[in-house]
């Protein structure tokens, strides 16, 4: 070991210096001036030699670290020298240099590996520093933004002014939806941000995703489901009308000829009146159905204001108290913090919450459980306000949870299938969302995100 040989050399030199110092002290005490001068000179040479030896070793080590700092991988210390201690030191420094270079090569390979993954990622990735410099932009981001060299966020003005404003004002954990138009098409993008720290620098990672295909797929699926429900409801109304019309037609025709009025009897007239009443009722039901559909397209733009959640919940409780079975249900309220406020259209939000609470009461009434409904409001970790309606009623089967927001889909006898779809649309107009999670016969949670 290099340190071992150097250690021995230093000890030997220190021992010689110590011996010389004692000799000098002995001659000085016995007043041998001439010997004292000679021994003093020898002591000086020994001290200077030790200093030079240490400096020589330190200079080599300092030179080595300076080379590492400057990323000089070509440095090499000669090993064909006679001095055993220096030779071993050189070998050790060369070995350390080799290990460092090996680690650097491995890191470079990993960096290249991760860079290749980022370049091939299906989502666009940008990293911005606090001054707006783009430190990384992968291939997908450049393709989506139709810009080959992205170095600063100001360049996005040339792509789309709205996009530039949106990205410039992004806060950590924001999620936005926007669209940009190029010479070929209009692209729908979701943009998310996440704070990261690299080398004590605070950066923002921006994730950009083209959701055109997902939107088209979901839109097609939604239309198919809507048409299926519309067809079902319309056929339910038209089928009795058609059947009754054919039945009534047989009363007034014989052998494909219209019978004479004199051939009619009182029973035929009663059947006709009864049939016409049924046709009228079915027609009215169909008209009401169409009116329900029209109501989905007539929701006014929200007139937002600051609303104290506690006041909102009190109004919901008063409205719900008129529902059948309410008195047997335990009604709980949880608001954190107590003075929590939301910015929304009060009438529309009351309409949504009242519809959810009414559904919860009806669901509980179908069970033998001790009914509990909880109105809950709190902020999540991203400062979004989550308002929840939680009940322990019948619940919603997993296979129908993705269908309950489709217009006219209903599992309730006599239900219109409008309430939840209307509520979903109101939340969309507020820039929020309405979601459901349910474990049948245990717990069901409808969550409004604002």
TrEMBL record:
SMART domains: HATPase_c
Domain PAS: 110-149
InterPro entries assigned to the protein according to its UniProt record, in alphabetical order: BphY/WalK/GraS-like (IPR050351), HATPase_C_sf (IPR036890), HATPase_dom (IPR003594), His_kinase_dom (IPR005467), PAS (IPR000014), PAS-like_dom_sf (IPR035965), Sig_transdc_His_kin-like_C (IPR004358)
Domain of life: Bacteria
Reaction equation(s) it catalyzes: ATP + protein L-histidine = ADP + protein N-phospho-L-histidine
Keywords from the UniProt entry: ATP-binding, Kinase, Membrane, Nucleotide-binding, Transferase, Transmembrane, Transmembrane helix
EC number annotated for this UniProt entry: 2.7.13.3
Gene Ontology molecular function terms on file: ATP binding
Keyword Transcription regulation tagged: no
Gene3D superfamilies assigned: Histidine kinase-like ATPase, C-terminal domain (3.30.565.10), PAS domain (3.30.450.20)
Domain Histidine kinase: 229-450
Transmembrane feature ranges: 7-29, 35-54
The protein's enzyme class: transferase
Protein name (record): histidine kinase
